[in-house]
Amino acid sequence: METFGEKVRRWRRDKNYTLSRVAGDVGISITYLSQIEKGQRTPPCIMLINAIADSLWISKEQREQLHRSAVATRLAERRKTKLQVELEHTRRQRKQR
């Protein structure tokens, strides 16, 4: 399944839009948008998701896909974080033995 950032990057490139153009339209830095696309940042708030969608001129269906993808990406990151915490806890317990 394609992540939120991967969708944004694919649709931006399909339109031949630069990071600079979309970031400027949305009012965020190029670095921040690049990090979102690379999955180095969690998907932004709904307001920014809508601004990105507006900048990319995507269809209503694609906008809905983007919102679903943002939710799925956030949930996956939370699960990953929870697993990392549990793993660290297990490691600490083993060291104490």
Rg computed from alpha carbons, rounded to a whole number of angstroms: 17 Å
Number of domains: 1
- Could you state the CATH homologous superfamily? lambda repressor-like DNA-binding domains
How far the N terminus sits from the C terminus, by CA atoms, comes to 41 Å
| CATH-derived topology | 434 Repressor (Amino-terminal Domain)
Mean pLDDT: 93
| Poorly predicted residue ranges | none
Q: Kindly provide the name of the CATH class.
A: Mainly Alpha
Question: Count of helical segments?
Answer: 5
SS strand fraction = under 5%
Would you list the SSEs in sequence order as H and E?
HHHHH
Shape: elongated
SS-derived structural category: mainly alpha
State the main characteristics.
mainly alpha, 97 residues, single chain, 434 Repressor (Amino-terminal Domain)
Could you characterize what this model shows?
The protein has 97 residues and is mainly alpha-helical. The protein has a single domain, classed as lambda repressor-like DNA-binding domains (434 Repressor (Amino-terminal Domain)). 77% of the residues lie in helices and 0% in strands. It has helices at residues 4-14, 19-26, 30-37, 46-56, 60-96. Helix 2 (19-26) crosses helix 4 and helix 4 crosses helix 5. The protein starts with a helix and ends with a helix. The mean pLDDT is 93.
